[in-house]
Amino acid sequence: AQSVTQLGSHVSVSEGALVLLRCNYSSSVPPYLFWYVQYPNQGLQLLLKYTTGATLVKGINGFEAEFKKSETSFHLTKPSAHMSDAAEYFCAVSGLHGSGNTGKLIFGQGTTLQVKP
Amino acid sequence: EPEVTQTPSHQVTQMGQEVILRCVPISNHLYFYWYRQILGQKVEFLVSFYNNEISEKSEIFDDQFSVERPDGSNFTLKIRSTKLEDSAMYFCASSHPTATNEKLFFGSGTQLSVL
User: Fold this and answer.
1) pLDDT in tens, B63-107
2) Which residues pair with B31 in a beta bridge?
3) What's the CA gap between A22 and B97, in Å, rounded?
4) DSSP A51
5) How many CB pairs below 8 Å do chains A and B form together?
6) Beta strands at B110-114 and B88-95: parallel, antiparallel or unpaired
7) Of A4, A103, A42, A111, which is closest to residue B89 (Cα–Cα)?
8) Confidence at residue A27, expressed as pLDDT on a 0 to 100 scale
9) Which residue from A minimizes the CA distance to B90?
10) A97 touches chain B (CB under 8 A)
11) Residue in A7, A10, A16 with CA at minimum distance from that of residue A84
12) In chain A, which ranges are continuous DSSP H helix?
């Protein structure tokens, strides 16, 4: 079974400040981990993903996340927030496709990022 | 970049009515999914579809729901008799056979309102 917990449903930062969105996962199989962003009235857009290999992954718009197996975490960071980063962010987990795994994503409850001028 | 397209963007229906939500996945993708997001809640998996059959479904996906790929390009979600609690944003997604869950491409969603 897999699950995702995002700590903090709302995060507010000032423009130029560090963004840190927390995600912890539970998985009985090696996880694939994802961060998606949802801007108002739009669909889900993939920010970045971890499947295998390097544990620090870089995504679009200056975001990055680090897979820490010992902490079962996949926190999303950005050194300097921009007003355009204001959106809903979802962490998700999946398992290796095959052996009965259809590749579905299990999402966290989402974190709304507010960026103040 | 190729896109998954969903129509309509908004659908309003009366309780008890049937609705069909339509999706056009990316042309060379073979895995298809429906997810939904009730206002203020997390995105939930409904169903996955491959090789013209359901490969996995969630507890939400009961007998009132069905999916179909009628013509090789469209992928539809039908709700036979809508309930108030079916009001949600419904997302279609697809993935390439060699990338499956490494990258799902999501449509922009259909907002279903059941009155």
Assistant:
1) 999 999 988 789 999 999 999 999 999 999 998 766 545 678 899
2) B50, B95
3) 31
4) -
5) 58
6) antiparallel
7) A42
8) 84
9) A43
10) yes
11) A16
12) none
